[in-house]
């Protein structure tokens, strides 16, 4: 159980800082953005497994998969935003300036203007 506990963050530690550059300047959590592609893709993949005579069941399953994925993702983001409120005004500003899931033209332009550096 100790191993599993080490895999999941249980809060913010004093040595941590809010990352707002790189891909985090495009959206607040780039991994969550990838789920927008992943959920429908997995649902569509189901079309290749089941035979064509079950198309209605496949469509219903796809719709349920996408809806459930969105509900779970939204719940996870809400929990994460509560934890990140630890950063106070800095996170409030970042939240106001940075899109939640999908990059906007403004965030893409800002990202392109950032200097590239390898650390």
UniProtKB/TrEMBL annotation:
Lineage, broadest ranks: Bacteria, Bacillati, Bacillota, Clostridia, Eubacteriales
Biological processes annotated in GO: methylation
Annotated keywords: Membrane, Methyltransferase, Transferase, Transmembrane, Transmembrane helix
Protein name according to UniProt: Phospholipid methyltransferase
Transmembrane segments: 31-49, 55-73
GO MF term set: methyltransferase activity
Superkingdom of the source species: Bacteria
Gene3D superfamilies in alphabetical order: 1.20.120.1630
Entry keyword Methyltransferase: yes
């Amino acid at each position: 159980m100790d191993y599993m506990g080490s895999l999941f963050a249980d809060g913010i530690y004093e040595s941590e800082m809010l990352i707002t550059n790189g891909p985090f300047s495009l959206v607040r959590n780039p991994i969550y953005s990838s789920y927008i592609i992943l959920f429908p893709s997995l649902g569509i993949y189901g079309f290749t497994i089941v035979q064509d005579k079950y198309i209605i069941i496949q469509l219903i399953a796809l719709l349920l998969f996408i809806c459930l994925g969105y509900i779970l993702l939204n719940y996870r983001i809400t929990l994460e935003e509560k934890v990140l409120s630890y950063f106070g005004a800095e996170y409030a500003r970042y939240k106001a300036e940075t899109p939640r899931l999908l990059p906007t033209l403004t965030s893409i332009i800002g990202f392109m203007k950032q200097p590239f550096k390898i650390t």
